[in-house]
Write a structure and sequence with these properties.
Elements lengths: L11 H12 L3 H13 L6 E6 L3 H12 L3 E6 L7 H11 L3 E2 L6 H12 L5 E4 L3 H8 L10 E4 L2 H12 L7 E3 L4 H24 L7 E5 L3 H12 L3 E5 L3 H9 L3 E2 L2 H7 L2 E4 L9 H6 L4 E5 L9 H7 E8 L2 E6 L4 E5 L5 H4 L6 H20 L8 E3 L2 H14 L9 H8 L6
Parallel strand pairs: 1-2, 1-4, 2-3, 4-5, 5-6, 6-15, 7-8, 7-10, 8-9, 10-11, 11-14
Antiparallel strand pairs: 12-13, 13-14
Bound molecules: adenine.
């Protein structure tokens, strides 16, 4: 048995079946898997991955292994692990996994170190925790590292900041910045899976509710669209004037959080920043307000402020904590303020993770092939890869599109022709 620290290996059969189920909706990754198994483009490459340990990630890990890589997996969030899948990867795929749903802070970091003990050539991050630990506590590993990939907006922001400050010590491919990633994963993935997490946790009726969304990036847009579709009245809060106009023209109310706080029944943060909902907001909320986060880190809601204001607290359902305030109002915090779509549900559907993880797999091959020419910067996924993934996805969806005629191509390339 490979090294591991998972909840219970007896859960493996269930994890294997669920992995098989998600595989059915990942045809692009499946075709890469077949190619990797034949060509072994990752032969001899050691990869440490810090991702949400889900069935979709399981399929990515299998793909990398078939490509010849030696892989270790740890969680990118203490609450996002699917314990049955973690067991299945260990038992049926011989992949070392270090993650347990609900692990405490110390265990979370111990697991990251266990993955890094592989002495990776490549790091795969969702939130930049591997990069951050390597640069601060495991610098001895830098000599073996070729580069890394980053899955999410928050991680890319952290890494671009490191590059700007001249402290990033190896190149990173920003998978999040691929269009076949954020157009679909961040928008339709987050839109659906966040509602799924809120509904599974609370069974709240969204129809007729007032649903406040902090942040109108790709995730906020997707969430607003789906909440409105479920019959909620959506209020958006923003700091960016352009995004605020977009939200208004998409048909939503836009208000400062200080005003939205009085009105909302359900609040969700998707900003990537901290203390977006704070003590002053909690003071204004209605009795029974539900507060959740779907941004990467659990800092968007000022939970310490809520804890300080509360006279008592109790877990009333799985992933729902009731905080009673001095005046008797109750506020319900979901999933400890961590990514609610992964804490209380299963994260984004495999159909969108297919494209995100195709970018991860092909991004790593690109990184390895071009290592000699890459500087210690954050690079986008090359446009050809992004477009190939879009073409492959469309084909697997059975959708055909038009092609430019030679005459149209010529028209687009020249400037002389007018009306
Ligand atoms: N991030 C969001 N949803 C995910 C999923 N299903 N698997 C891995 N990472 C994710």
């Amino acid at each position: 048995m490979v090294k591991h620290d998972v909840k219970d290996l007896k859960l493996a059969p269930k994890g294997r079946l669920r992995m098989e189920w998600s595989q059915r909706s990942m045809p692009v990754l499946n075709s890469i898997k077949v190619r990797f198994a034949k060509e072994k483009p990752l032969k001899g490459i050691r990869i440490a991955a810090c991702l949400h340990v889900t069935t979709e990630t399981g399929n990515l890990m299998e793909t990398l292994k078939l490509g010849g890589a030696d892989v270790r997996l740890t969680a990118s969030n203490p609450l996002s692990t699917q314990d049955d899948l973690a067991a299945a990867l260990v038992v049926y795929h011989g992949i070392p996994v270090f993650s347990i749903k609900g692990e405490d802070h110390a265990t979370y970091y111990r697991h990251i170190h266990s993955a890094l003990d592989l002495k990776p050539h490549v790091t795969m991050d969702d939130g930049a925790d591997l990069v951050s630990i390597i640069h601060t506590k495991r610098q001895e590993l830098l000599k073996d590292i070729i580069g890394g990939t980053e899955e999410t907006t928050t991680g890319v922001i952290r890494l671009k900041s490191m590059a700007r400050h001249g402290v990033l010590r190896y190149p990173i491919i920003a998978v999040n910045d691929a269009q076949t990633k954020h157009f679909f994963d961040n928008r339709y993935g987050t839109g659906q899976s966040t509602l799924d997490g809120i509904i599974r946790a609370t069974n709240v009726l969204l129809a007729g509710s007032i649903f406040v969304i902090a942040g109108y990036g790709w995730c906020g847009r997707g969430l607003a669209m789906r909440a409105q579709g479920a019959g909620a009245r959506v209020i958006v809060t923003e700091v960016n004037p352009l995004k605020a106009i977009e939200a208004v023209m998409d048909g939503y109310d836009v208000l400062p959080m200080a005003e939205a706080a009085r009105l909302g029944d359900v609040f969700v943060t998707v900003t990537g920043d901290k203390s977006v909902i704070n003590g002053a907001h909690f003071r204004k909320m209605k009795d029974g307000a539900i507060v959740a986060n779907s941004g990467h880190f659990n800092v968007e809601i000022d939970i310490p402020a809520l804890e300080k204001m509360a006279t008592s607290r109790k877990i009333i359902r799985d992933f729902v904590e009731e905080f009673t305030l001095a005046d008797g109002r109750k506020i319900y915090l979901l999933g400890e303020g961590r990514l609610i779509n992964l804490a209380a549900a299963e994260g984004h559907p495999a159909m969108v993770m297919d494209m995100s993880f195709a970018n991860q797999a092909l991004g790593i091959v690109h990184l390895i092939r071009n290592a000699a020419s890459l500087e210690n910067k954050v690079y986008p996924v090359p446009e050809e890869i992004d477009r190939d993934i879009a073409r492959m996805k469309l084909k697997t969806m059975g959708i055909r599109i038009d092609r430019l005629t030679p005459e149209q191509n010529k028209y687009l390339a020249e400037w002389q022709e007018g009306t």
